[in-house]
Every structure is written in C-alpha cells, then in structure tokens.
Amino acid sequence: MAMSKLYLCLQAVLLLSLDASPLAQALLTVRDLHHHGYHHSPTGPSTSNLSTGPSYTPVPVKGKDVDWLEFPINLEYLEAEFFLWSAFGYGLDKAAPELVSGGPPPIGGQKANLDPFLLEVIKEFAYQEVGHLRALKKTVPGFPRPQLDLSASNFAKVVNVALNTTLSPPFNPYASSLNYLLASYLIPYVGLTGYVGANPHLRNPTAKRLVAGLLGVESGQDAVIRALLFEQKGDLVVPYPYTVSEFTLRLSNLRNTLGHTGIADEGVIPRYILAGDRYFVAYARTPAQILRIVYSSGNESSPGGFYPHGADGRFARHYLSKARN
Ligand SMILES: *[C@@H]1O[C@H](CO)[C@@H](O)[C@H](O)[C@H]1NC(C)=O
Ligand SMILES: *[C@@H]1O[C@H](CO)[C@@H](O)[C@H](O)[C@H]1NC(C)=O
Ligand SMILES: *[C@@H]1O[C@H](CO)[C@@H](O)[C@H](O)[C@H]1NC(C)=O
What we know:
CATH topology: Ferritin
Shape: globular
Keywords: Signal
Organism: Pinus taeda (Loblolly pine)
Protein name: Desiccation-related protein
Order of helices and strands: HHHHHHHHHHHHH
Radius of gyration: 19 Å
Number of helices: 13
Number of strands: 0
Bound molecules: 2-acetamido-2-deoxy-beta-D-glucopyranose
C-alpha cells in the first residue's frame, strides 16, 4: 500500500537526519522547546543584516517590511494552535506561553482522533509552527495572539458552504484522520500563497531570508497533506456521498470564490498532487485576499470564520478600520 511506502520514506528521512542538530532539536517535546528556548546556535557576529549561515539568525527588521512580516503572524498563530491542540490536547498557553503576549485562548481547540502515523506528522507540524512564530516575533514586534475559532462547528460551516449543502451529521474535523487531513488542507496552503505574495514587496535581506525559509517549510507541510489526500482521492468521506477529491475541489473553489482572484487554488485530483500555475510556479495571494478567505466572509473588512474579532497587524487593522467608518 502506498501509504506504508510514504511512511517508510518519511521514517528514512527522519532517521537519516536524526544526527543533524536542527531536526533533532525539532523532535524535542514541546515542553523541552519551551524550557530550552529552541535557539539555534548563532553563526557568529554578523557584520551585515544578511544572515549568511545555513540557519536563520533573527535580526530586527525595520520599515515597510515589518507589515509584510507581521501579517503572517496571524496565520502562524492559527496553524500553531490548530496543530498543537489536535496533537497534544493543549495549545500555546502551555507549550510556549511566552509567544501568546496576552492574547485570549482559542475557542474550540481539542485533541483530534488521529492514527499513530498522522499523530507523528501533526506533532512535527506543531513544532514547526512554534518555531515559525518564534522566528517572526524575534524579527518584528508582532502583536498578541488574536482570538481564534478552532471549533468543529466553524469547520463544519466552511465545509457546508463549500459543498453548498448541510451535511448530516455535521462535518467534524477532529473525528478521524481523513477528516483532519481535509481540515488541514484548509490551513498551511493559505499561508503559503501569502508568503509568495509578500516576497516581491520585501527589501531587507533578513526579511527575504526569513520568508523564503518559512515558505519552504509551509510548502512541505502542504505537500505532505496533499500527498496523503491524493492517496485516498477516490474514497468516500464516510458517511457523506462525496469523495476526497470532490471535497478538495469544492474547498479550493470556495477559496477562489472568497478570495476574488480567479484561480489561485486547485483540488487534489489526478495530475494535481501539488497546486501551481501554468509554469508550476506557486500561486500568490495578497493580505486582503487571504483575509477574505480566513474570515470566511469574502470581505477583508468583515471578520468571522477563524478570526471572530479580526486579525492584527497594520494591513488587517487598516481593513477593519474601514468597516467602522
Ligand atoms: C540592520 O540592523 C541594524 C540593527 O539590527 C539596524 O540598525 C539597521 O538599520 C539595519 N539595516 C538595514 C539595511 O535594515
Ligand atoms: C446551491 O444549491 C441550491 C439549491 O440546493 C441551488 O439553487 C444553487 O444553484 C446552488 N449554488 C451553487 C453555486 O451551486
Ligand atoms: C465589507 O464589509 C464591510 C463591513 O462589514 C461593509 O461595510 C462593506 O460594505 C462590505 N463590502 C462589500 C463589498 O460587501
């Protein structure tokens, strides 16, 4: 079975890299991450703002780049909380409280019913998101964690809108590994298109280095999720009369509709394990397009969905202030 091949392959990658210190560090428990601070050793005194070593060395960034690096903190909070809660049954308040900066705990986070393989994958994704938040918050001032809604009913609403129906029983992202993969399909890909969209606006070498590094790992997460869904693309999402492929197509179409961009998203169907344009270059989205999607409202000034009170940072606050005028 292809699933076990992918599993073996991932295991081989893990084993081969176990003596490489960054991955070994990534495999520490979240509690260890917190206690040890998860610092890579610096590559030595830096004479310019360009980090030339193989590891990212945070240097505070100033100017317009700050807005472009603060915006994704919204998405990294969402990803960190979603993966942490689902894998461990708790979130940043316990795993890395110093990253919360006084923001309220998410609504509706819970441990997901995952098979042992997917549990290992999601644990690793959770560590990655904690690392991403740490890197961003050492580079730009950031803001407190926004209110997030991770409740099953919020995911169920998105799925109902995507399928243009009311599923019975309501879709529960936390009920099974397949449901969880479909829910995860909604998350890192949006961040990925945001990093592609941010890159052309950046000036500072540190900001470019960070965005490229974050984009690389977010793309890896998206690829793992899509490969696992691809393997099951013809299966029904029990007990509903829709296949995995149909689910992903409808979710991608919904994002295209909400974002008002034309195509920047593609379901998991034959020949489309990964999404890309006619050159197989990743699609880009602007902050406004991303907000329309994660608010589930199609309107960057109208919060809701995963962010009941809206996102933070200058771009998101700008759109929210438009609504109040
Ligand atoms: C480089 O970083 C230093 C301090 O970290 C800062 O004062 C300086 O403005 C930065 N230079 C650029 C080009 O961003
Ligand atoms: C959604 O379903 C309703 C009736 O069930 C139908 O009238 C409508 O055209 C559908 N919308 C889309 C976009 O398919
Ligand atoms: C977007 O939402 C804001 C705030 O709710 C509202 O004032 C505005 O009219 C909406 N725009 C569109 C195009 O619906």
